[in-house]
């Protein structure tokens, strides 16, 4: 059973950068997504990486600013966030994707198409890490 743990959240100024990490034993087998939840709002998908690392899905609003990568030797998935904006603030959660391709490998669902419904395609949610972008 996966137990995902997020870390790296902090207070950062607009335009700044931050790297979040998601760790779990056995995480290398799974596609992993990051979600963001602002105060009083639902959990939105942000970005996802397949188990092979060869495929990524991301929201259009973070294209060119957010990068997801994985270090399978450390069972870790990292989210590098650059050019941060106040609207990027929230609790960031990572989770494992339920979706598989024809070979059985875990892949990312189409998060841009699914929107908030994408959360139903993930499991083993971590506790989250707080990111605040403010001057």
Secondary-structure blueprint:
Blueprint: E1 5-7, E2 11-12, E3 18-23, E4 32-37, E5 43-49, E6 56-58, E7 66-71, E8 76-81, E9 90-97, H1 111-114, E10 122-123, E11 129-133
Parallel strand pairs: 2-11
Antiparallel strand pairs: 1-3, 3-8, 4-5, 4-9, 5-6, 7-8, 9-10, 9-11
What does this structure look like?
3% of the residues lie in helices and 40% in strands. With 135 residues, it is mostly beta strands. The strands form two sheets. Strands 2, 4, 5, 6, 9, 10 and 11 form a seven-stranded mixed beta sheet that branches. A four-stranded antiparallel beta sheet has the order 1-3-8-7, with no helix packed on it. The longest helix has 4 residues, at 111-114. It is globular.
Summed up, what is this model?
The chain is mainly β and 135 residues long. It has one helix at 111-114; strands spanning 5-7, 11-12, 18-23, 32-37, 43-49, 56-58, 66-71, 76-81, 90-97, 122-123, 129-133.
- Cα(first) to Cα(last) distance is 40 Å
- Report the count of strand segments: 11
How many helical elements?
A: 1
Helical content class: under 10%
SSE series: EEEEEEEEEHEE
Descriptors:
single chain; 135 residues; mainly beta; seven-stranded mixed beta sheet; four-stranded antiparallel beta sheet; 1 helix; 3% helix
